[in-house]
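Something for you to look into today, if you have time. I want to see for myself how the chain folds. Leave the record below and I will have a look.
***
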Amino acid sequence: MSFFRAIRNARWRIVLPIAFVALIAGATTSADEAPPDVLTIGDITFKVEMEKFPDSFSGMTYFEKKVIRIDPSSTSTLRRKVYLHELMHVAWHDGKLPYNSQQTYTEDEAIESLVPGLLRILEQNPEAVQYLQHATPSLNKTIAQQK
């Protein structure tokens, strides 16, 4: 089975982001912590909504509406994992609608396709990085920045 076929498999699409977040996030955070309200990639901004799903989904990215939706009833650790998962969908598609779901990739090609969008998101969204690291932004600011 090729790597792309494995990545298309739902298990890999969930496991890879969760493994990545485990490296970044570590421990749990308070139950009321929510992700940043927006996520920007280039000149495209996605609104991040905390809204319950009527089914078993924990998160979803709606490219047409530029909305990332996350179930607020999930634990704070799961919310961070779901946020990262949806962030990686946005990075993979560079914020635009998916165009060729039939294309196959080697592992290196898949990573090369993901890296530019992921770097752009991390550079443009320091609040997202802080959220994924479960850091409180005010704790990371200097006294001068807090005034």
User: Anything to note?
Assistant: Helices lie at 3-8, 10-25, 76-92, 107-124, 126-132, 137-140, 143-146.
